[in-house]
Design goal:
CATH architecture of the largest domain: 2-Layer Sandwich
Strand content: 15-25%
Radius of gyration: 36 Å
Structural class: alpha+beta
Largest sheet: 5 strands, antiparallel
Bound molecules: adenosine-5'-triphosphate, magnesium ion
Shape: elongated
Number of strands: 12
Number of helices: 11
Order of helices and strands: HEEHHHHEEEHHEHEEHEEHHEE
Number of domains: 4
Length: 404
């Protein structure tokens, strides 16, 4: 090759290099991530222009002050960055994704998602790390708002079921309270009279005992109702599971919903297994399961003009205990069957349903490693079957009855 050919070849190589450099610059300058390359001794080799948008500082400022990244790191995340930068000296492959906060030049805090990988030349020599930093501040903020909104919705779902519960409790307590107060006022009136010597012989011990006995029974009934109410507030479904009587839950919940169901003209028929199935769970959460299935069944019968009936069955199937709730309501369209357990899915008018009932039921049942299935056809009602592992070696008792 003569000198003219060599010059032409050099010129061609130079042109190729410029095109390649131009391509690299175009990609690097327009990348929205804040990217950089740090050599094994911790010095910055290259930084993308996007650093200005993410941090408020230009590339030159990072080159001038090699500790700028550490300086703008949020003080609470300083150790995350320090530990990570130390690891750059080693040739170990880096797959770790870290998150840290920086203080932007405008004073705002930005959440950064950081990934990096080791860089090697053609001969395999370690050249440091290439890092990509993504500003995920608005994404994190949106997630936070979504969680807040979900928590608010959960709270209103809870309040709605407390409302249902309160109506049932008020009705249930009212009867024994009337008995208690009625007998008490008779005694308050009569006792001073009986105490007078001239009326002593009129004192009827048996009648007195009977009144006190009625009062005691009424007091015990109120205590039992309050005890059951406390069962609803035993919240955490995952911890401290114990053996829970499925039949008892059905009886208690039906009693609480009695007023509500009667008002809606709904008859509830309970067909409870005589073996008295016990499951491993938490009574408060199991009551919530029964309550949600029951109120859904009732709501599904809003449009039913004739007889409105809900059948609740419990049964033992091998090592499983089952709770089966059937109604003659509107049924569920095929397209909705896969969605009904999703949080916030509801076909009820706004203000009537949050769409959280079945998702809460599903979460509880899954926590206890059980299953819930639904069988339904539009216009032909729905049957929900909950299957849970039976608790081993527990006392058996006779069947229980309930009605509403
Ligand atoms: N027994 C049923 N019959 C017909 N549709 C049902 C039945 N149970 C649930 N659904 C459907 O599933 C949807 C979701 O039920 P879910 O209990 O999760 O929410 P919701 O009842 O609408 O509201 P919430 O329970 O929060 O008050 C209901 O809106 C309804 O369309
Ligand atoms: Mg519901």
């Amino acid at each position: 090759m003569d000198s003219k050919q060599a010059a032409m070849e050099l010129e061609r190589l130079y042109q190729d290099l410029s095109v390649s450099e131009q391509k690299f610059k175009t990609v690097a300058d327009y990348t929205s991530n804040w990217e950089y390359w740090i050599n094994p001794s911790g010095r910055l080799e290259w930084m993308s222009r996007a650093c200005q948008k993410v941090t408020g500082y230009a590339e030159e400022e990072f080159f001038k002050d090699q500790h700028l990244l550490e300086s703008i790191t949020h003080p609470e995340d300083a150790t995350i960055i320090r530990d990570h930068l130390i690891s750059i000296g080693s040739n170990a492959p880096c797959t770790e994704e870290i998150e840290f906060r920086i203080i932007h030049r405008d004073g705002t805090v930005r959440q950064i998602q950081h990934t990096c990988q080791s860089v090697h030349d053609a001969s395999g020599n370690y050249l440091g790390r290439r890092s990509a930093n993504r500003d995920v501040t608005s994404q994190k903020q949106a997630e936070k708002e979504k969680h807040y909104l979900q928590a608010q919705m959960l709270q209103s779902a809870k309040l709605a079921s407390i409302g249902t519960l309160a109506a049932g409790v008020a009705h249930e307590i009212n009867n024994p309270l009337t008995i208690l107060l009625g007998n008490l006022s008779v005694l308050v009136e009569q006792v001073p009279i009986w105490m007078k010597p001239e009326f002593r012989e009129r004192f009827d011990v048996l009648a007195f005992q009977k009144r006190v006995q009625h009062m005691e029974e009424a007091g015990n009934r109120i205590a039992a109702i309050i005890g059951t109410l406390l069962n609803y507030s035993r919240g955490d479904c995952g911890t401290y599971p114990c053996a829970v009587d499925l039949n008892q839950c059905v009886v208690e919940t039906v009693a609480f919903c009695k007023t509500l169901l009667q008002k809606s003209g709904v008859e509830v028929v309970c067909d409870l297994a005589p073996e008295r199935p016990f499951i491993v769970g938490n009574i408060g959460c199991l009551n919530q399961v029964v309550m949600n299935l029951l109120t859904n069944a009732r709501d599904a019968m809003d449009s039913v003009t004739g007889e409105r009936k809900i059948v609740i069955r419990t049964r033992c199937q091998g090592d499983l205990s089952q709770l089966i709730v059937s109604d003659d309501g509107a049924g569920i369209p095929g397209a909705d069957v896969t969605k009904i357990f999703d949080p916030f899915f509801s076909t009820k008018s706004p203000g009537k349903g949050t769409g959280l009932g079945l998702s809460i039921v599903h979460t509880i049942i899954s926590k206890w490693e059980g299953s819930i299935e639904v069988q339904s056809k539009p216009g032909e009602g729905a049957t929900f079957t909950v299957s849970l592992k039976t608790a081993a070696a527990l006392p058996k008792a006779s069947s229980q009855k309930c009605a509403a």
